[in-house]
Amino acid sequence: MSTLLFGHKHRFQVDLGDLQNEKEHLAIFLQSNLDVPVASIDHKLIVDSEKLTVLLVQQAVTKYVHRHNLSRTHWVSAQNDTVKINRFKGAVKKKEKHGNSTPHQSITQSWGL
Questions:
Q1: For the residues of 3-50, what is the DSSP string, one character each?
Q2: 56 Cβ partners below 8 Å, 6+ apart?
Q3: How many domains does the chain have?
Q4: What span, in angstroms and rounded, lies between the C-alpha atoms of 81 and 14?
Q5: What's the pLDDT band for 2 if we cut at 50, 70, 90?
Q6: What domain range is 26 assigned to?
Q7: Which of 26, 57, 70, 73 has the most crowded Cβ, counting Cβ within 10 A?
Q8: Burial class (CB in 10 A: 0-12, 13-18, 19+), 67
Q9: Collapsed DSSP state (helix, strand, coil) of residue 113
């Protein structure tokens, strides 16, 4: 007799990459949008479901990235049972970008007036 795959739980991992500070918010978002329990283990989120596919999890994570204005610096990929949030090459973190800038002089200051 063949084994039935119905009712088989899939375990998906969501790798947040450098967005660890978004872990709690993303977990709540996934729980409410996918209607499944989400656990936090180490630096990843774990989604257990009988009904979901990795593409549905990827779509939900992509939706979160877009709604939180992270799509300029991050993109979402899926491979096997892992959904990963990646940073675009050359994308600079906001804190680093603004923290290293020097104040600009006005025209009056630069001319010594």
A1: PP-TTPPEEEEEE-TT-GGGHHHHHHHHHHHH-S-EEEETTEEEEEES
A2: 34
A3: 1
A4: 9
A5: very low
A6: 20-88
A7: 57
A8: exposed
A9: coil
